[in-house]
Design goal:
heterotrimer; A mainly alpha; B mainly alpha; C alpha/beta; B: mainly alpha; MetI-like fold; three-stranded antiparallel sheet; two-stranded antiparallel ribbon; 7 strands; 67% helix; C: D-Maltodextrin-Binding Protein, domain 2; D-Maltodextrin-Binding Protein, domain 2; five-stranded mixed sheet; three-stranded parallel sheet; 14 strands; globular
């Protein structure tokens, strides 16, 4: 926006101090909470509401709460029973993974966190990081599955909890990305058949709920396979998530492609580049950079959406929590357990969405 | 995409260098591959179905369903056909989506406007609301509310009674409704007439304003007509006040309207989750109207109400409606999570059908078709709306 | 174009290989070295891992018996927990080799679903679990009740039939997962929980206050719970059948895991034939001659399995009832092992 039309500064702006009630905390309160009668009423109502709700909640969660006790003790106490989380912590996080091998998924998660942390910095974005990711994901899979280097094999049917949630979403996004890019290119293509096929696929997938695809993966997909061939249900759910995510990525990438100036295509053409070269060397590197922030949003929703595998009885983070809650000892403490899981989800999503917003700002700035 | 321009060159080009021929080749290959894959999968399916002697076709729709459904908008019993059971499911999905949409728009707008409030406290709370509810999976929220309902609330015999005629217990919410009377039909008719009058009034007032510049208080008078007319009718037909009050008989409340915990939890979860997104949409929409517009309108001497109605809303809505529609669609699609907390929506009924008949392919296909149908209707609406506002644009 | 040609050739090869790889389940199982069994996963006494992650239950022991028969090692089983919804598909698609997940044998399932049910390993019937506080003494008093029931099961159909037949109204609450459903019931979401009587006993055993609940006297259905295999694989079906029958037969003959080694020296020709001392049975089934010995030695006879998992000394505390030997007035009866 232009700043030309602002009134020119006038002369009387000498060093006269403003009245006390306009600066400092009082001024801030006046300005932000009691600027007019409507705001004042609003503030008073809100404060009353907060006083009514927050202290009892704090008492419940922190004062009267039990942190390390048995279920029976919890049933007698009045406050929150965080023991349901502390007492079942390892099962909630790792599911049925063999107890003495828990360091493996733990290490895999550390690895993932490290990779994510390292990738945050845009200066690190280069070819080697991509290789690093591929290697990292491969290592994660290896750690989880075992079978070599003296690690016991742990069948993927035993994977569960947070590692499963992370694997389903991260692997899902990684595998869906190339597919999404291809679909987006196909949708932009001039070849009518390819274009319509891509449109049909994208719109079909975006029109149905994920759960119908998960149903499909759990009850219909096996019938597609030839006799005697079968995948386990985690892999099938993973395929469903990939197919689902790809359609959404395609739309995001399409946005990026459409945001490319025509001149880019023309310039590439005038250099004599063919389609593949144009895309690979000119268009995609720019378009994909634009769409990183919305891609992070897709990662966030993929991360949240993996919780739907509960419905087809995979033991992800949410299912292990539920499973804990059906134990008679811990029945009736759903609120505490769900709050704990919600905090895990919230923390992850919050960081990701903050990051995506920051990145968007940075990219906008550098594009100017 | 731009690379294969039909660059007509003189003279013969080799097959590989002619973009148009090459593109045909690519497409034919793709089609062939997909056809082959389709054929391969299809032959697998037919082989598997035949080998395991699984029934195929939609004949099962005409068989007796013989399972009960807990909540239904139309009469249904276990003696009815599968087709009817599935229809009950579709109606349940529509019901929760419809009510959910209305509540979401109201709550989302409220939160979105609060987020922009000059009041620091209010805007902070709205921001926390948006951030927290957006970042927690909707399924987890559903579980939370469902558990909240049946773990915290008392049994029917100790039901809470916040207001007379309203009962809250772990079987849900029961409240009284007026007993049906002929007066209600008259009221509905007079409401319809009211709508007609308002419509005519609107045309007239706009014409008059264009001609004479006189402003007619349309909103207030319409409200008066729409509420007043049915009330007068009610009073004229003897002011019947008999209420159908829920009574605890046997196990559960009978009479009045009962809303199950499943429905309430589903509605609550969907509305809270989606409204966080709608709030962001509304905020972005309002912020998209530049401040200069407001200042210009104020300079013209428009009252705040008119400012909102004539200047801000028409411009903000253009930005708001498309993402809002897709949020509504998301809500509808997310309502399929009902299956996880036992509300008999379409997916849940179809799931039971799949299980009882063993015909998974038909069942999943039906689920997809129904949701695709919803999506198509929504996008049709979107296109229509986009066209409409495109006309408004100058 | 080279790529496409390669692709096509590979695809064709893949189709061919898959087409050819339709050997019987026994060969498949032997080739991979273990049996993949579909089990419940949530049902105490039938199929559920204990605190250490070891699978236990009557259905689990059935699968172990089959593994003992095929491999001579009862531990060569891997378990896939299945929901009511996914169980049949899992079997149909070959994801599991045997489905021992307290499934009721019915005509439709035996025919239209492409399954074959084997020897029943538990005779059950559907009942109602209800809180004592409600003061209900008979299922006939349940008019208007809210009923917790697993969707997509025979119990869901039976309870609808029962209420219809008795002109009563019910409000079903359907939750997919056995344990979730029980939780909703104990939290008071519904008035009664309906399921197979054995499951109700299991649910009550793990209730917060087991004494507050009673199982109503009415048994409203027949629920023969049997393992299932894919339709058309007769050899595999025979193996599963006779693995279970071997356990029943052993109980009839008085052979148990404790005395089976002594019994090998028995002079009784019936026992000699049964334990494979005099050969013939194993070969007929395509198994090792000692298959019955291995089952009894490693898993036990039916009585032992029953008492260990669901019997009166377990938290379930179920009497033998219909599951007693025919000689004791039950239904468990084995054809001769000749």
């Amino acid at each position: 926006m232009d700043s030309k039309n602002q009134p020119s500064k006038t002369v009387y702006a000498k060093t006269v101090k403003p009245p006390v009630i306009q600066i400092g905390p009082i001024g801030w309160i006046r300005k932000n909470l009691f600027s007019d009668w409507f705001n004042s009423v609003l503030t008073v109502i809100t404060v009353i509401f907060l006083i009514k709700t927050v202290p009892p909640l704090v008492t419940w969660a922190f004062v009267d709460s039990l942190w390390f006790s048995t279920g029976a003790e919890c049933h007698e106490a009045g406050g929150a029973c965080w023991s349901v989380v502390t007492g079942n912590f390892r099962f909630i996080i790792f599911g049925f993974y063999p107890h003495d091998q828990h360091w493996r998924p733990f290490l895999a998660m550390i690895l993932l966190a490290g990779l994510l942390f390292y990738s945050q910095n845009r200066d690190h974005w280069n070819k080697y990081l991509a290789y690093g990711w591929i290697l990292g994901l491969f290592l994660m899979g290896l750690l989880m599955k075992g079978g070599i280097l003296g690690l016991d094999t742990v069948e993927s049917t035993q994977w569960g909890g947070l590692p499963l949630t992370l694997i389903l979403s991260i692997f899902g996004l990684t595998a869906a990305y190339p597919m999404g890019v291809l679909l987006a290119l196909g949708r932009q293509s001039r070849m009518p058949i390819i274009q319509s096929l891509c449109i049909v696929y994208i719109e079909l997938i975006r029109g149905v709920p994920l759960i119908s695809l998960l149903f499909m993966s759990s009850v219909v997909f096996p019938l597609f396979l030839p006799e005697g061939v079968s995948f386990n249900n985690i892999l099938r759910a993973q395929v469903a998530i990939i197919l689902f995510t790809a359609a959404y990525i395609a739309e995001v990438v399409r946005g990026g492609l459409q945001g490319m100036a025509r001149g880019q295509y023309e310039a590439a053409e005038s250099l004599g580049l063919n389609y593949v070269q144009t895309m690979r060397l000119v268009i995609l590197p720019q378009a994909l950079k634009i769409v990183i922030p919305p891609s992070v949003s897709i990662l966030i929703s993929a991360f949240k959406d993996t919780s739907l595998v509960v419905i087809i009885a995979l033991y992800d983070l949410l299912k292990t929590t539920q499973s804990t809650l059906t134990n008679p000892e811990w029945m009736g403490f759903s609120a505490e357990a769900y709050i704990f899981v919600a905090m895990i989800y919230f923390t992850c999503c919050f960081f990701m969405s903050n990051y995506s917003r920051r990145l968007e700002r940075e990219l906008n700035r550098s594009n100017r | 995409m731009t690379a294969n321009h039909n660059s007509k060159t003189s003279g013969k080009v080799s097959f590989w260098n002619d973009p148009s021929k090459r593109s045909i080749l690519y497409q034919v290959t793709t089609l062939l591959l997909i056809g082959l894959l389709g054929y391969y999968l299809f032959s697998n399916i037919t082989h598997n179905l035949a080998r395991q002697s699984i029934a195929t076709g939609f004949g099962f729709l005409q068989k007796e369903a013989s399972f009960e459904i807990g909540e239904k908008l139309i009469p249904y019993s276990a003696a009815d056909k599968y087709a009817r059971a599935l229809w009950v499911g579709v109606l349940n999905t529509l019901l929760v989506s419809f009510i959910g949409t209305i509540l979401t728009v109201i709550l989302g707008t409220f939160v979105g406007v609060s987020r922009l409030s000059k009041n620091w406290l209010v805007s902070r709370i709205a921001a926390i609301y948006i951030e927290v509810l957006q970042d927690i999976p909707v399924l987890l929220q559903l579980f939370f509310w469902y558990a909240f309902f049946y773990e915290i609330l008392p049994s029917p015999r100790q039901a809470l009674q916040p207001i007379d005629g309203v009962f809250l217990c772990n079987r849900g919410l029961a409240f009284m409704v007026p007993v049906f009377q002929p007066a209600h039909v008259y009221m509905a008719i007079s409401f319809g007439i009211g709508c007609l009058i308002v419509f005519v009034l609107r045309l007239w007032s706009r014409k008059r304003q264009e001609k004479t510049g006189k402003y007619f208080p349309l909103f207030r008078s319409s409200l008066g007509i729409l509420i007043g007319l049915p009330m007068v009718t009610w009073w004229l037909s003897g002011a019947p006040t008999r209420m159908d009050i829920p009574v605890l008989t046997g196990f559960n409340f009978k009479g009045g309207v009962n809303v199950s915990p499943e429905f309430t939890a589903l509605l609550l979860g969907l509305v809270l989750y989606t409204s966080a997104f709608v709030a962001e949409v509304v905020r972005a929409g309002i912020q998209s109207v530049s401040h200069g517009q407001t200042e210009a309108a104020m300079a013209l001497g428009l009252k705040p109400g008119h400012l909102l109605k004539l200047v801000i809303l028409p411009q903000a809505l253009r930005v708001i409606v498309p993402p809002l529609t897709s949020q509504m669609l998301n809500l509808t699609k997310n309502s399929s999570l009902a299956v996880a907390i036992g509300y008999p929506d379409f997916v849940s009924v179809a799931g039971t059908t799949i299980n009882q008949t063993g015909q998974a392919i038909e069942g999943v296909a039906m689920i997809m078709i129904v949701y695709l149908f919803f999506s198509l209707i929504t996008s049709a609406f979107m296109n229509w709306y986009n066209k409409r506002i495109a006309l408004v644009e100058r | 174009m080279k790529f496409f040609r390669l692709f096509f050739v590979n695809l064709l090869l893949f189709v061919l290989v898959c087409g050819l790889a339709t050997a019987g389940t026994l060969d498949d199982v032997k080739a991979k070295g273990f049996i993949q069994a579909g089990v419940n996963g949530d049902l105490f006494g039938f199929g559920k891992p204990d605190e250490k992650g070891v699978w236990r239950g009557l259905d689990v022991d059935t699968a172990r018996a089959v593994a003992a028969a095929v491999f001579g090692d009862a531990n060569k089983v891997k378990y896939t927990p299945l929901t009511a919804k996914t169980r049949f598909t899992a079997l149909q698609s070959g994801e599991v080799d045997i489905l021992t997940r307290n499934c009721t044998q019915t005509l439709t399932r035996d025919t239209a679903l492409g399954l074959d049910f084997c020897q029943v390993n538990y005779y059950d019937g559907q009942g109602f679990l209800i809180s004592k506080k409600l003061g209900v003494k008979s299922a006939k008093e349940l008019d208007g009740a809210t009923v917790c029931v697993l969707p997509g099961t025979t119990t869901e159909l039976n309870v609808a039939d029962y209420f219809r037949a008795n002109n009563m109204k019910m409000k079903p609450v359907v939750i997919e997962n056995t344990a979730e459903l029980a939780k909703a019931f104990f939290a008071g979401r519904c008035d009664c929980l309906t399921s197979d009587a054995s499951q109700l006993a299991g649910n009550r055993a793990v209730a917060p206050n087991p004494k507050d609940y009673i199982i109503l006297p009415e048994i409203i259905s027949k629920e023969p719970l049997a393992p299932a295999v894919r339709h058309g694989d007769n050899q595999w079906k025979d193996i599963v059948n006779y693995s279970i029958l071997a356990m029943i037969n052993a109980e009839e003959l008085g052979v148990s895991s404790k005395n089976v080694d002594e019994m090998l020296k028995s002079n009784d020709p019936i026992i000699q034939r049964f334990l494979g001392v005099s050969p013939g049975n194993g070969e007929a089934l395509g198994l090792d001659e000692k298959f019955a010995y291995n089952i009894i030695k490693q898993v036990g006879n039916y009585g032992e399995v029953f008492e260990r998992n669901v019997g009166v000394n377990t938290p379930l505390g179920i009497e033998r009832g219909l599951n007693a030997l025919w000689t004791n007035g039950g239904l468990m009866y084995s054809p001769p092992f000749k």
